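Whiteboard transcription, Tuesday session. T.W. wrote the structure tokens on the left side:
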């Protein structure tokens, strides 16, 4: 029987995390200075605006991409990249089964087919071997998602792409500052897409960036997010259909301030994330993803996984106990693999229909998609909040809370 002092807080013991983490301060003088300058401008339009011009300069200093389009969100960045590929309707793009809906919205709107691949059982990133099994004669691209700040195996992804002549769109929305073989993520594929969403490492509320080093894809890139207007030559006679995903000068001003914090912010997250990873890895009953010689995670959040039969309570009960200990935590990152979402199960993409399937341009049936590793990870993972506003004391207490609960609830 465990001593009373070791009882979980949820069962009447004392919380492990004390005091509770303080409020996170994300914006300050850097952002205010840019906004103060911005309100004195004659125009808040993005094209040629001083805030957006400076945003591009700061971004490309960190992520050397020759052709970039700042835009309204990370979802918009991905849609712009997909549209710029100019793929014929019915073409397939392979994506991981664990991701945000933002990864697939642009694919569907371009009348293309998301093909879901299973994931690595520990990182949740796309499994290149399973992706290879999903390649068909209609496959034209692959979209690796660097989940939770952990880079995908880009060597394997790029080898698969080369073998089958696939284009590569890197979804870097969750991976500011993460690196693959010493390079920032987003530089290996044909496109890199980034997010300034409220909940990402860097934020201006909502915003995004898409970039490429390919001249053939990069020339005129901004048209794909700006109604296909030609801002260089002028005029309003678009030759094809494109949405309006323009960023604004206020968004750019805040994002400029955030980019000035980029290196310090990432360094702090890495220090805290590595410290917590090592502590959790030393415990029985839980597994945690680690950097490899090729990767450096930027720890947007962490996804430790309870081992089978490690505890006598459910994952959700374990998370409830963690919360009672004061740990910033949730259950699964998403409720199910994306192909199991209702809209995919019902093929309800356009007012209850899916024109591609209804007209025979695809035979994809998402009710038949099997991704067992994604299902297993989401059933057993714990989503841990990690950000630069936390302290080493806090992450040490998180590890102590895990140790306490793993011992108390051990089978």
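and on the right, the sequence the group agreed on:
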């Amino acid at each position: 029987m465990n001593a009373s002092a070791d009882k979980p807080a949820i069962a009447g013991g004392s919380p492990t995390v004390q005091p509770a983490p303080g409020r996170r301060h994300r914006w300050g003088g850097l952002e205010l200075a840019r906004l103060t300058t911005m309100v004195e401008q004659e125009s808040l339009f993005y094209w040629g605006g001083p805030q957006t011009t400076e945003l591009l300069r700061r971004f490309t200093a960190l992520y050397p991409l020759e052709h970039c389009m700042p835009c309204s969100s990370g979802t918009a960045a991905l849609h712009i990249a997909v549209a710029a590929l100019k793929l014929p309707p019915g073409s397939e793009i392979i994506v991981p089964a664990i991701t945000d809906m933002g990864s697939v919205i642009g694919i569907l709107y371009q009348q293309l087919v998301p093909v879901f691949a299973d994931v690595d059982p520990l990182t949740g990133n796309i499994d290149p071997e399973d992706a290879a099994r999903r390649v068909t004669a209609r496959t034209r691209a692959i979209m690796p998602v660097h989940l939770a700040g952990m880079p995908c195996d880009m060597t394997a992804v790029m080898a698969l792409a080369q073998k089958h002549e696939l284009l590569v769109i890197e979804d870097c929305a969750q991976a500011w500052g993460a690196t693959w073989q010493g390079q920032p993520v987003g530089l290996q594929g044909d496109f890199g897409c980034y997010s300034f969403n409220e909940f990402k490492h860097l934020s201006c509320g909502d915003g995004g960036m898409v970039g490429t080093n390919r001249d053939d894809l990069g020339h005129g890139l901004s048209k794909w997010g700006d109604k296909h207007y030609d801002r260089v030559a002028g005029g309003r006679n678009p030759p094809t259909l494109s949405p309006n995903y323009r960023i604004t000068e206020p968004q750019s001003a805040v994002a400029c301030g955030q980019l000035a914090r980029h290196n310090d912010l990432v360094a702090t997250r890495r220090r805290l994330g590595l410290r917590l990873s090592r502590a959790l890895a030393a415990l029985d009953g839980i597994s945690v993803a680690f950097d490899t010689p090729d990767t450096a995670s930027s720890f947007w959040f962490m996804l430790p996984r309870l081992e089978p039969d490690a505890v006598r309570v459910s994952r959700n009960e374990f998370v409830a106990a963690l919360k009672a200990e004061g740990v910033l935590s949730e259950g699964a990152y998403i409720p199910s693999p994306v192909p199991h979402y209702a809209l995919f199960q019902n093929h309800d993409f356009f007012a209850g229909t899916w024109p591609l399937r209804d007209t025979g341009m695809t035979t994809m049936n998402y009710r038949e998609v099997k991704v067992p590793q994604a299902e297993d990870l989401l059933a057993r993972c714990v989503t841990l909040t990690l950000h630069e506003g936390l302290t080493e004391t806090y992450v040490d207490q998180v590890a102590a809370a895990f140790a306490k609960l793993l011992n108390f609830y051990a089978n």
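Someone added at the bottom: Residues 302 and 384 are 5 Å apart (CA to CA).
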